[in-house]
Design brief:
This protein is mainly α. It contains 2 helices and no strands.
Length: 51
């Protein structure tokens, strides 16, 4: 569990550092994550309604 927390912390810090220096990359990541969240939500909704 501690190793997982350390990995996520490191990824978060690295991502913040990289995205702060590249605003266009930050916008692309934001859009991509939004699309993925909508797709996952739609998938879960369809799965729930079908089951």
């Amino acid at each position: 569990m501690t190793a997982c927390a350390l990995v996520y912390l490191a990824v978060g810090v690295l991502a913040r550092t990289v995205l702060k220096t590249r605003p266009s990359a930050a916008r692309a990541v934001t859009r991509a994550s939004g699309v993925m969240m909508i797709a996952i939500g739609a998938f879960l909704l369809v799965e729930r309604l079908a089951g």
